[in-house]
Amino acid sequence: MKVRKRNGVEQDFDIEEIKKAVNKANVTVDKEVQLSEEQITEVAETAKEFLKGFNIVKVQQIQDAVEKALMKHNHYEVAKSYVIYRDEHLKNKKFTQDEEKALAICSATSEDVSGDNANKRATVLGTMRDYLAGLVCKSIGRKILLKEVQAAHDQGMIHFHDMDYSPLMPISNCCLVNTFDMFKNGFQMNDTWIDPPHSFLTGANLQAQINLIISGSQYGGQTVSWAALAPFVDVSRQRIKAKYKKLFEELGIDDKKKLNEIVEREVGKEVEKGVETYQYQCISHTSSNGQSPFVSAVLNLLEAKTKQEQKDLALIIETILKERIKGVKDRSRKYTAPLFPKLLYIQEKGFNLEPGDPYYYLTELAAKCNVHRMQPDYISAKKCRESKDGMVIPCMGCVTGDSEVLIKFNNEVKKITFEEFWKLMDEKFESNGQFSIDDKNLKIDLKDVKIFDNKEQNFVDCYRIIRNNSTNWSELEFSTSFEVDEKIDFEIEID
């Protein structure tokens, strides 16, 4: 069991620390009600029993468990002294809890943030600045939220997402980016007007810039479609064709077949360069909040408007899959799977679903990519239409009940669906606190269970699984104009 201190730093649980704290309270009471060493040990063991089942506990939880243990054994005077002692100890600390967290963030020792986001490095200056701002937002945000919502969040019944931004700041979470309109009609980037690109390579660069700016002004993921850039493959083709046609004329060569071969080869090179450039920009960019763009890229042949666009989009998809199979170099100069962009591969009967479909070769290539890089994800156009009013809309990467996960439990590796995982763990563990709605548990705290992590390419500890009790969304309205019960004071100390 680990203890997470108020500044976010973790250390091993030590029962001797509980004994020391109880003893400090013990010596302040009258001798006739003081505890013996055996009684102090008994209290410490009871407090530890109250914490059983947790892999990580906070100092506050330990203190509550000690107080509860003292009361259980009827040591009321010592319990009263312990409460006074812990309050005095907190008052006498040099730094407040938030200040200790700020110090831990700046020294990159805070466990609270070191694994907070897969695409957010805790040692980057922009990330530190963002987390420091988040401390203030969280502190005020907790006072804005309804007490019932805050209590449910603290108990793990719900998760109020991104409290270091919301509900204080007017910031959005996740979006589908309409690059179709942007690339067709032009768009404004900061104070600069950007015309439609004149080549596929320029479009790929612009798409990376769009992703970067969006990631700096929202929290969470964004989804873009490569179909928006398919028309610009032909724009590049016509430019390349004009160039080589002129060269052929100057050299007196009249060979249309050879001209077309050279043009298509050069088009392929430009698509390859554009895809590679976009991929490296995606994973190397860092936005103003210290976060790499959290991007999902849609590979959907159905979005092409013409036969030529469809062929060019197929070329883009083929190139993307080959680049993903190749991977990118990590710090040890070895090729590995990039974390982003996430790939969403749409399948449709008559296009790429079954052998004999004209683009089935892309599905075979996607399967090969899965073997090497655990991507792409597959989306059925048919099932999508059934659940989304006849539309094929891409998604973000949430785990659904029939999604398969790889777990290691009791020295056995299993590939099972999330629903099967839930049932298996439900039989082995009891949910701490028994939070339930309609007799369906929302979370299960685990022990000695590992799950395969694609980024680490290894099994990592899985401490808790959480499920949605219902597929129905709750509509909530929030406003940036708010009132709070108590006045919020801000102090600035200037030397």
Question: How are the secondary structure elements laid out?
Answer:
Blueprint: E1 2-4, E2 10-12, H1 15-26, H2 37-50, E3 56-58, H3 59-72, H4 76-91, H5 97-106, H6 111-114, H7 125-144, H8 147-155, E4 172-176, H9 179-185, E5 187-189, E6 192-194, H10 200-217, E7 218-225, H11 231-251, H12 256-284, E8 295-299, H13 307-326, E9 328-329, E10 335-336, E11 342-347, H14 360-373, E12 377-380, H15 381-387, E13 404-409, E14 412-417, H16 418-428, E15 436-437, E16 440-441, E17 443-445, E18 449-453, E19 458-461, E20 464-466
Parallel strand pairs: 1-3, 4-7, 7-8, 8-11, 11-12
Antiparallel strand pairs: 1-2, 5-6, 9-10, 13-14, 13-18, 15-16, 17-20, 18-19
Task: Describe the fold and architecture.
The chain has 495 residues and is an alpha/beta fold. The protein folds into 4 domains: 2-93, no CATH class; 100-155, no CATH class; 172-387, Anaerobic Ribonucleotide-triphosphate Reductase Large Chain; 404-466, no CATH class. It is 46% helix and 16% strand. It contains 16 helices and 20 strands. It has helices spanning 15-26, 37-50, 59-72, 76-91, 97-106, 111-114, 125-144, 147-155, 179-185, 200-217, 231-251, 256-284, 307-326, 360-373, 381-387, 418-428, and strands at 2-4, 10-12, 56-58, 172-176, 187-189, 192-194, 218-225, 295-299, 328-329, 335-336, 342-347, 377-380, 404-409, 412-417, 436-437, 440-441, 443-445, 449-453, 458-461, 464-466. The strands form 7 sheets. A 5-stranded parallel beta sheet has the order 4-7-8-11-12. Strands 14-13-18-19 form a 4-stranded antiparallel beta sheet. A hairpin with a 2-residue loop joins strand 15 and strand 16 (440-441). It is elongated, with a radius of gyration of 29 Å. Mean pLDDT is 84; it is low at 431-441.
